[in-house]
């Protein structure tokens, strides 16, 4: 897929900011994104300014996700074949607040036709995290306005290297869901 390098660059750039603080690797990101390019029913929604990729959003059936992402649903007795998973949305700062995030949700929900529930997860960082910007506003209200609700009982763990760290560390991520 010719867009993978641009999408990988975008992920590394956007996820470097709080709350993810991801010290990413473009080669790893290109490999990671293959699941969205190769899985039946998956989608990558792309926002462009002219020919330049400025945003992207991913989704796929939860059954195609990693064991770490599926486990909280399985442990809670939720049938994963009825859940459509929203991987992530990344958007360059100058393009935020213009409706692109809303369009990402609409496109992914359209892709989820036939599923009972959509879900995504977000990293949990303490309110007093040393790298939290003073003007940081979580996306919780944006998500609630789209009909999503936090699910404190659905938490997974993923590892990555934070900026300024020498090794990967585990992070907890909480799921948000919406019944369709």
Most strands sheet: 6 strands, mixed
Domain count, please report it: 1
The CATH superfamily appears as Gcn5-related N-acetyltransferase (GNAT)
Query: What topology, given as strand order, has the largest sheet?
Result: 1-2-3-4-6-5
Q: What radius of gyration results from the CA coordinates? A: 16 Å
Q: What would the principal axes of the Cα set say about the shape?
A: globular
CATH architectural arrangement? 3-Layer(aba) Sandwich
Order of helices and strands: HHEEHEHEHEE
CATH topology: Aminopeptidase
| Low-confidence runs | none
Number of helices: 5
What would you call the structural class? alpha+beta
The overall strand count is 6
- Binned, the helix content reads 25-40%
Mean pLDDT: 96
Q: Please identify the top-level CATH class.
A: Alpha Beta
Share in β-strands: 25-35%
User: End-to-end distance, in Å?
Assistant: 30 Å
């Amino acid at each position: 897929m010719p867009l993978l390098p641009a999408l990988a660059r975008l992920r590394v750039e956007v996820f470097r900011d709080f709350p993810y603080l991801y010290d990413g690797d473009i080669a790893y990101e290109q490999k990671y994104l293959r699941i969205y390019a190769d899985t039946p029913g998956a989608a990558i929604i792309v926002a462009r300014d002219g020919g330049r990729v400025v945003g992207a959003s991913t989704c796929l059936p939860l059954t195609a996700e990693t064991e770490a992402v599926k486990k909280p649903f399985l442990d809670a007795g939720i049938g994963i074949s009825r859940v459509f998973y929203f991987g992530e949305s990344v958007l360059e700062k100058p393009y935020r607040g213009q409706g692109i995030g809303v369009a990402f949700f609409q496109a992914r929900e359209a892709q989820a036709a036939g599923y009972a529930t959509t879900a995504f997860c977000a990293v949990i960082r303490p309110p007093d995290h040393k790298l939290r910007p003073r003007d940081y506003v979580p996306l919780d209200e944006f998500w609630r306005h789209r009909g999503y609700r936090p699910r404190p009982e659905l938490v997974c763990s993923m590892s990555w290297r934070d900026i300024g760290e020498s090794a990967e560390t585990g992070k907890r991520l909480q799921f948000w869901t919406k019944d369709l």
